[in-house]
Amino acid sequence: MNNIDIIVILVFTALVFVCGMSFSKAGKNMKSFFAAGGALPWWMSGLSLFMSFFSAGTFVVWGSIAYSSGWVAVSIQWTMCIAGIIIGFFIAPKWQKTKALTAAEFIADRLGVTTQKIYTYLFLFISIFTTGAFLYPVAKIVEVSTGIPITTSIIVLGILILIYTAVGGLWAVIVTDVLQFIVLTAAVLIVLPLSFDKIGGINNFIEKAPEHFFDFTNSEYTGVFMVAFGLYNLFFIAGNWAYIQRYTSVATPKDAKKVGWLFGGLYVISPLIWMLPPMIYKVLNPDLGNLADEGAYLLMCKEVLPVGMLGLMLGGMVFATSSSVNTTLNISAGVLANDIYKNMFPNTTNQTLVKVGRIATVVLGVLTIIIALLVPYFGGIVEVVMSLAALTGGAMFLPPLWALFSKYQTGKTVLAVTVISLTINAFFKFFAPSLIGVTLGRAMEMVVGMGIPIVLLAILEVYLIQTKSSTTQYTNYLAVKNSKEAVANNEEEDTSSNKKGIKVIGIGVAATGLLITILAFLAQSNKTLIWGMGTFIMLLGLFIIKKSK
């Protein structure tokens, strides 16, 4: 990587940081800081949901699988498309109608404060490991591209992310997510044709690819795994507290539907585009070993991108991947402020709660950095992400999600399912291999993780219906929900920040387009492709600015 690439990275980093910091005055109350005023444009929320989920490990986790196993990586991600469409039809509007600021607030309303406290502590504990698993790929990308030690990258990037998330709140997260989506889409549309050109065309790539490279499943990622992982994605995207925030921050149930549908639609196309470069790199260099395949995507970019464009791609990938970190930091801090501190000190002012949220963001950010530093000792990022998914996905997110639709489930029943499921999953993961000589493969680990809570909840639901159990808790929840809806209907929507958010996005996009256009003049080859993309992005940014007026 040369000096121009490094300069581009610094310029893009500064651009993202300034965009995030421009919302330093947006957090005047809890709703504006953690829900962007509650009237977020659906397309912004949908793109942010896509970037928050998609970037969690796309370049490193799925890129590694694409390099080693081929088309299986695309199959895995198509399960996310199906999940998004189902969520758009049935689940996202249901969350919006709860009028809860956080998922923890819904749990308190629906299942009781005691249940909420236990889920909150579990969520915060797990979220620290989740954000650590998200920060690690960011630093891995930097290490592969620049040679900067991964420890240094984790610390510096972690501090940078927690600063603008603590200052700007959800608006900082949303605006930087949308900017990164546009930048990365432009960049990958340059990488893909150049990658095919490097290998000698599509036909040559297909001919030289390893045997079974285009199979939809393999021995590790079987059809059973795909079904189980699809269910995990459904529960995770529908029930993860950070993603629920995207459904509750829009103005209407119809907007919430559009958020889910946009997410699903983007996952129809994006797996094809993103996974092909590391697959092509497998043909170019089939001998990456150990954990080196985690850098396959960046290594392909280094092969084909002209001067400066590698820096832009790296900057975009780093901050896109980091969107998963800032999303989880924001909602975790919101839970600490709104659902723990506020319950302890009910007379606290909004300004104090926002301050508590910012302090919580910093503390959680530091813990995230520590966990990210430990990821290599857990067996690598693929192992961490898959194990977290199998252990916690169904157990943590499905029971409260089930209670969103069921009038019979209570705080005790959903907690029982969560505790039993986590216990069984932990036993098979950490103790069964040594105690009873049973080691679950990837597919069976996912099946057990998803299957146990489904079976337990289904059995409980049938039993509660047959015994005509009391629905008092659900009736009380409906009264609380109706009162919140009445308050929300009497409030004026806070759309004042929407225009500013759109304007900031437009300025960021236009500036990025100008940067790409300048890089076209420095490129030794493919000038027309780069210039055309830069011009298009710049015009798009100017159009967005005009729409914000």
Which secondary structure elements does this structure contain, and how are they paired or packed?
Blueprint: H1 3-21, H2 30-35, H3 42-54, H4 58-69, H5 72-97, H6 103-111, H7 113-146, H8 150-199, H9 202-208, H10 223-239, H11 241-248, H12 253-284, H13 296-304, H14 309-344, H15 350-374, H16 381-403, H17 411-435, H18 442-466, H19 472-490, H20 496-522, H21 527-547
| CATH homologous superfamily placement | Sodium/glucose cotransporter
Beta-strand segment tally: 0
Taking the alpha carbons of the first and last residues, their distance comes to 40 Å
Kindly provide the radius of gyration, computed on alpha-carbon positions and rounded to a whole number of angstroms: 23 Å
Order of helices and strands: HHHHHHHHHHHHHHHHHHHHH
CATH architecture group name: Up-down Bundle
